[in-house]
Amino acid sequence: MANGSKSPHILNTSTNLLGFCLIVLTSIKVMHFNHGTLIDDSTGIASLLLMASCFLSFLSMRAEDERRSERLEKVADYVFLVALICVSVTIVLVSFNLIS
Q1: Buried-state track 62-99, b at ≥16 Cβ within 10 A, e below 16
Q2: What pTM was computed for the model?
Q3: Residue pair 89/42 in contact by the 8 Å Cβ criterion
Q4: Is the pLDDT of residue 1 over 70?
Q5: Are 54 and 15 in contact, with CB atoms under 8 Å apart?
């Protein structure tokens, strides 16, 4: 793992956002929404992407080969970015009441 590695930061932030997504999903279930909502779907997708990002960044930190570590970190970084965009779009839609 390189000195300037982003993997620990990706892992930390991904796990925190994953916790946030799981709270949102649990809240939806507790409020007994009978139909799937866009919030439910986008939060689920973000959760899956964040789990993948966590897994990849962990593997990057554990990899003994420097090239493999860098490659895993790069993939984790891109997956995290897509998950962050998904979470951000959901927050904007909810904030402006664009989702019913």
Answers
A1: ebeeeeebbebbebbbebbeebbebbeebeeeeeeeee
A2: 0.81
A3: yes
A4: no
A5: yes
User: Scanning the structure block, which residue is given the tokens 């866009």?
Assistant: 38
The yes-or-no verdict on residue 20 having pLDDT over 70 is yes
In the numeric block, which tokens belong to residue 94? 């909810």
- What's the token pair of residue 64? 């003994």
| 71-98: average pLDDT | 87
Distance between CA atoms of residues 17 and 34, nearest Å? 25
Residue 72, phi then psi, degrees to nearest 5: -65, -40
Residue type, 74: K
Alpha-carbon gap, residue 61 to 51, rounded angstroms = 16
